[in-house]
Amino acid sequence: MSVAVIGSALAAAFMGLEAKSANAALFIDQEQSSSNVNMAYFSQSDLAQSFKPTANNVAGAAIKLREGIGTVGDVKISLWNAQGTVLASGIALGQVPDAWTEVFWNPVVVTPNQTLFLIFESFSNLAIAGDTNNPYPNGQVYANRGFQSFPYYDYTFRTYADDSFGIQSVPEPNSVLGLMTFIAFIGVSATKCKNQQSALYKS
Prior knowledge:
Elements: H1 3-23, E1 26-32, E2 37-41, E3 47-51, E4 57-64, E5 73-81, E6 86-95, E7 100-109, E8 116-121, E9 127-131, E10 141-143, E11 148-150, E12 154-155, E13 157-162, H2 173-202
Antiparallel strand pairs: 1-13, 2-9, 3-8, 3-10, 4-7, 4-13, 5-6, 5-8, 9-12, 10-11
């Protein structure tokens, strides 16, 4: 077996082992992209959006700020479960009108299709965009003191999940064992070939 063939085989093996970690990335799991109204000012307090994830984790969230309202400010987004427990949170600094405000955190284990909540907070004069025509059927808006319910309204929001969550970022044991066996086989084959060539020249 030639050196070039051995090198190509080893390169292909290593590339296969690295594929999982190289392809891992955040993706949008839930999204409501319509932003035709000013849904709420942060000054109203108790602003939240419910949603149902399809992924087994939540790694971040985002909201769209309403254009033409406010100047600049920091925005906090928190992830809560139905039992009132904070699962994660993040703060986006220096946000401006008409921008997607994104925060990310270490992936949090969740149950797919189980209702969760995003809570939005800011001391700024900014506002959150949304839609009043029930564009997102798996959740709704909450706003004003006591988290008043608005069943047919939705903020403009996104949630993110991590497709590498729960997947090993290092080669699996079987893959490593297979590669080591292959390398050992290559070494034995090369030794036999060399010995055969030596015997040929001696005869």
